[in-house]
Amino acid sequence: MSEPTTSDPTGETRTRGKGEPESQKWLSGIVSVIGLLIAISPAIYESAASMAWNNVLVGAAIFLLAGYNYYRLTNGYSTSTGVMSLVALLALWTIATPFAFEGQFAMDGLDVAAQGLVWSNVIGGIIMAVLAGYIAYAARTAVRAGTAAGTS
């Protein structure tokens, strides 16, 4: 038996009752919220201007991209593997950012004061990279197998 499908104006087909598991939707939501926290972290912690702008831009991008994936899953579309792969790459950049801007911290005298922001980036980046990587991997595996991720 085939699952009932509907088509939207963009031509993308939605499959009812055969989507990814509910956990992927919530994991996308969690990644989106962590991205928002990264975006507002310069307002919480003292930081160099370059690091602050980086966090605002990258955090906002992660928030919007993971939120888009959450929206897709909520409305019956499949996970966008490309979007979640990009989120995973941005999360890896979030981990590397404190080390890339390390010289800027020293010039601004923020070595000790910026430790909260550094750990916020590293821990948030690790969580986002793992979750986004898992979501992208599970969606890719489901497409290869011809079934939705988490179903048999």
Automatic annotation (TrEMBL):
Superkingdom per UniProt: Archaea
Keyword rRNA-binding included in the entry's annotation: no
Family matches, as InterPro entries: SPW
Polar residues: bias regions: 1-10
Regions of compositional bias (Basic and acidic residues) in chain numbering: 11-23
This protein's record includes keyword Zinc: no
Chain positions covered by the region annotation Disordered: 1-23
Chain ranges of the SPW repeat-containing integral membrane domain: 26-132
Official protein name in the record: SPW repeat-containing integral membrane domain-containing protein
